[in-house]
Amino acid sequence: MTSRERRKHVRIQRQFEARLFNAKVRYETEGLTENISQGGVYLRTRDWRVFQAGDQTVVTLFLPPSFTDRDKIFGLRGNAIVRRVDEQNEGVALEFSRDFQEFEKVEHSEIAVKYKYKEISYYLCSISDLEFADLIRTNRHGFLVDKSQGGLENNAVFQFSTLSLDNDYAMQVIKRDFSIANIHDARVIEVRKRKLDTSKNTVNIGRAATNDIVIYDNLVSKSHAYLYLHPSGEECYIVDCGSKNGTLLNGKVLKPFEKYKIADCDEICFGPQTKTVYFSPISFANFISELRTAHPPSDI
Predict the structure, then answer these.
(1) For position 151, what pLDDT does the model report?
(2) β-bridge pairing 143-146 and 188-190
(3) For 264-275, how does the pLDDT look when each residue is reduced to its tens digit (9 = 90+)?
(4) Which of 30-39, 158-167, 197-206, 263-272 has the lowest mean pLDDT?
(5) Fewest CB within 10 A of the end CB: N or C in the chain?
(6) What are 45-84's pLDDT values in tens digits?
C-alpha cells in the first residue's frame, strides 16, 4: 500500500483497548488507540520506550459489543511496523502489513495468557542510563523479579512503583537466588497500577483479569493479595486477601488482611509455586548496575 493510498483511508477517532507485541525484544504491553484506519493505527502506551521505528510487531485490537454485532468483546490481530515513536504524547504510530479488514479474528480468551514481560537482559542491553533513571522514577512501587527455576512454572504466567543496597549485598542476592546461566532470562514485573481508581496506593495481585498484576495459576486466588505503598513513599507492605493457598513472605505464611512490611530482596510467594524477589526502585537500579559491572552487555 502506497502512502497516497493510506491517506485516502478515513481515520476513526475511537478508543479501543489494544495489545502490542515487539518481536525483537519479546515484550507485550497494553495500550489505547487514539485513531485507526484500514492502513494503520496510533496507539498510546506507557511502554512506548520499548519500541523503535522499523520494529516488527503484532497488534491486537479489542472491539466491544457496541461496535460489533457480537454479544462479547473479541479481538482483531495482525502484523504491523512501527513508523514513528512519539515521545511527547507517549505513543507509537503503526502501519499495518495488510488491511485491517483482513486481520485474524480471535476470542479474548485465546490470548489472555500470552502476556510477555521484559527480562533482565532488556534492562542490561536495551535501555540507556537516562531512560533507566526515568523508569525508576515512574515505578515508585518497585519491582518483582521472577526467581522460579528456569522462569515461572508452566502453569504460572504473569500477565500484565528506600533503601539502597550496598554492592556486596546485591551480589549476594544474585548468587543466592539466581544462577549466572538464567539471571539474564529472569522476568521482571514493574509493579504499578493498570487502571485508575480510588486506591492509588495499592497494587492488586491475583488470577482475575481485573487485577493490576494478573497471575494465571490455578493455585492463585482471583483476588490473592495487594501491595500497599505508604504515602511517604518510604515503606511498602504486602497484604494477603484471604487467599486459598496463602501468601508467603520469606517462607512465613501471612495472616489474612494484615499488613507486613517488605524490604529489599524479600521473597514473596503467591501460592506454593509463584516465587518472586522484591526490589525497591533504588535497589533495583543498583541491582542492574551491579549486573552490568559483573557481566557487561557485550558478554550477554
Answers:
(1) 41
(2) antiparallel
(3) 889 999 998 888
(4) 158-167
(5) C
(6) 878 888 999 999 999 888 776 666 566 677 888 999 999 9
User: In angstroms, rounded to a whole number, what is the distance separating the alpha carbons of residues 207 and 214?
Assistant: 5
Cα separation, 60 vs 66, whole angstroms? 18
Do the beta carbons of residue 147 and residue 186 sit within 8 Å? yes
Q: What is the pLDDT of residues 110-158, one digit of tens each?
A: 444 344 567 787 787 766 777 777 777 778 788 998 876 444 344 444 4
Phi, psi (degrees; rounded to nearest 5) at 169: -65, -40
Q: Which residue, among 291, 210, 221, has the nearest Cα to 254 in the 3D structure?
A: 221
Contact 158, 214 (CB under 8 A): yes
The set of residues, in sequence order, having a beta carbon less than 8 Å from that of 249 and lying 6+ positions away, is 238, 260, 262, 266, 267, 268
Q: Give the residue from 68, 63, 20, 23 showing the smallest Cα distance to 43.
A: 20
Dihedral (CA of 214, 216, 220, 221) sign: positive
Q: Which three cell numbers stand for residue 160?
A: 500484565
Residue type, 298: S
Distance, CA of 100 to chain centre: 26
Q: CA–CA separation, 211 vs 195, rounded Å?
A: 9
Distance CA(165)–CA(163), nearest Å, equals: 7
